[in-house]
């Protein structure tokens, strides 16, 4: 079981995203938490707060978004509740079935294990940076869409469990920060190899347009909901998983060549 809270103005903006996109995003970030434990999603429950004048058409779009995202993993919204609110508030709870296996938690990493990632990194962060800067260039539409509607690699969660993953979580607050949770829970350190991260041409072009380092988006950007997992060194990984580092004795996450590892999203930072 997992739960997430989405607040209008904090986690989404209706002038940036349609009701359909918000529904898909709200479903995706919860479904990705379920598969990150090696489970198969079985249902969502949605608590919705909204102003009384919320357009019915927007609610229909929201409902369609939930339906279509859940359809990707063969599940649906099973229930929920509504209430009046001065802004849109979504509280989503997802359930999953482990099929009798133990859940993959954050605490199983051991020195010598390999750290790998499945799914996109940096795309949603780039889209947010473009939207925040008022940039709506057609050539960057894929990045804008990535912020509005993530595409988690759902199939790779249960697959990682079958391969023998010892720790796993979805990347919602930034790769370095989320791997830090694994390092802390496991009592280990993690070293990332920056050369292992391929910078797609689109991401590089957006970074050049805004004058930033695209690797910062890859290392610290959240909301792509990629999966980060730790595997024993003898496990041969399929091409969907990219080895990006290693578990080592010690603590915290370090990026080779950087004196201090970059941070990620902090819910209570100003």
UniProtKB/TrEMBL annotation:
Pfam short name (any one): AIRS_C
N-terminal signal peptide: none
Gene3D superfamilies: PurM-like C-terminal domain, PurM-like, N-terminal domain
Residues holding Mg(2+) 3: 33, 170
PANTHER family assigned to the protein according to its UniProt record, in alphabetical order: THIAMINE-MONOPHOSPHATE KINASE
Function: Catalyzes the ATP-dependent phosphorylation of thiamine-monophosphate (TMP) to form thiamine-pyrophosphate (TPP), the active form of vitamin B1.
Name of protein: Thiamine-monophosphate kinase
Annotated organism of origin: Acrocarpospora corrugata
Lineage: Bacteria, Bacillati, Actinomycetota, Actinomycetes, Streptosporangiales
């Amino acid at each position: 079981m997992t739960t997430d809270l989405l607040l209008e103005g904090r986690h989404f903006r209706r002038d940036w995203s349609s009701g359909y996109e918000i529904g898909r995003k709200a479903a995706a970030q919860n479904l990705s938490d379920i598969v990150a434990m090696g489970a198969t999603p079985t249902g969502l429950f949605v608590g919705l707060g909204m102003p009384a004048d919320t357009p019915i058409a927007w609610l229909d779009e929201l409902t369609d978004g939930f339906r279509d995202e859940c359809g990707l993993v063969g599940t649906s919204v099973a229930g929920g509740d509504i209430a009046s609110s001065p802004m849109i508030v979504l509280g989503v709870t997802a359930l999953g079935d482990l099929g009798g296996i133990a859940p993959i938690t954050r605490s199983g990493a051991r020195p010598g294990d390999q750290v790998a990632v499945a799914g996109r990194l940096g795309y949603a962060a780039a889209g947010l940076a473009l939207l925040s800067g008022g940039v709506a260039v057609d050539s960057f539409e894929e990045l804008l869409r990535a912020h509005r509607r993530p595409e988690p690699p759902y199939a790779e969660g249960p697959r990682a469990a079958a391969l023998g993953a010892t720790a796993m979580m979805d990347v919602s607050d930034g790769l370095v920060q989320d791997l830090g949770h694994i390092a802390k829970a496991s009592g280990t350190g993690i070293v990332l190899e920056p050369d292992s991260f391929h910078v797609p041409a689109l991401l590089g072009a957006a970074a050049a347009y805004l004058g930033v380092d695209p690797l910062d988006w890859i290392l610290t950007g959240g909301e792509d909901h990629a999966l980060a997992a730790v595997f024993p060194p003898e496990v041969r990984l399929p091409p969907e998983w990219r080895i990006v580092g290693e578990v080592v004795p010690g603590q915290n996450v370090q990026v080779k060549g950087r004196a201090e590892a970059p941070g990620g999203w902090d819910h209570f930072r100003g």
